[in-house]
Design goal:
By secondary structure, the protein is of the alpha/beta class. It is built from four helices and five strands.
Length: 145
């Protein structure tokens, strides 16, 4: 019921709100979600065992995992901003079909940040798409989008 009402309101509002106000509302929403995400990151940091699924898409974590994606996950967060957890604090990082979407320079930074937050001798598991093509593109300085 709420989603139906929200859709009607959004359609009517979009017709009457000037463009600059729409941009302002979008930025306000982003700032709110970013501040809320910091609270969620803080809560995750207090767990005894931290398991992250990065680039999860729209889903909630199961089996002790906390999902992280730009929208619709346990934590809505842009991973371009890094992982705001202490060094050596994460037990497991899992990612499926994320790496091939990150430009090479950002990929190196992302992997270094994953290494930074992982506890020593813990694991980073990832599922990849066509590894040979990715390695070829990386060797040429390219990326997949």
């Amino acid at each position: 019921m709420f989603n139906f009402v929200q859709k009607i309101v959004n359609v009517k509002i979009k017709k009457y709100i000037p463009k600059f106000l729409k941009i302002l509302l979008q930025k306000t929403k982003f700032l709110f979600l970013s501040n809320f995400a910091f609270i969620q990151w803080y809560q995750v940091s207090k767990k005894n065992v931290i398991r992250l699924e990065l680039g999860s898409g729209v889903k909630k974590g199961k089996n002790g995992f906390t999902t992280v994606d730009i929208n619709g996950a346990n934590i809505s967060w842009d991973l371009k901003n890094g992982i705001p957890l202490k060094d050596n604090s994460v037990d497991l990082i899992y990612s499926s079909h994320l790496l091939e979407h990150i430009p090479f320079k950002e990929l190196i930074l992302f992997l270094k940040d994953c290494k930074r937050v992982l506890k020593k001798m813990e694991s980073f598991q990832f599922v990849y798409l066509m590894l040979e093509i990715i390695l070829m593109l990386i060797s040429k300085g390219g990326h997949l989008k």
